[in-house]
Amino acid sequence: MIGLLRDPKVGVILVEHPDRLMRFGFEYLEAALAAQSRSVLVVDPDERADDIVRDLHEVIVSLCARPYGKRSAQNSAKKALEAIHE
Questions:
Q1: Which of 2, 19, 65, 66 is deepest in the core (most CB within 10 A)?
Q2: Predicted confidence (pLDDT) at residue 39 exceeds the cutoff of 70
Q3: Which residues have CB under 8 Å from 47's CB, separation 6+?
């Protein structure tokens, strides 16, 4: 994708949904390309809230997994040590 954005010979970038190109700031990219007489053509411009909600959930889960996973591992190790000492 970066190659398409860098190549001045590419006048139109075709995407199915704006959120498939980038999640946030699509309008900024569109304005930057328009300043270079280039454009983004979106086939299905309708917002897909279900995809956005699912992606947000995945991001939250991935950000929370590491701390909770470490805490879970620490709790498991603590319980194992307690069982050994009993």
A1: 19
A2: yes
A3: 19
* pLDDT tens, position by position, 6-16: 888 999 998 88
Separation CA 18–CA 39 (nearest Å)? 12
Dihedral of the alpha carbons of 5, 9, 11, 13, in degrees to the nearest 10 = -40
Based on the structure, what is the number of domains in the chain?
Answer: 2
Contact 4, 12 (CB under 8 A): no
What number of other Cβ atoms are within 10 A of residue 18's Cβ? Answer: 19
**CATH, residue 19:** 3.40.50.1390
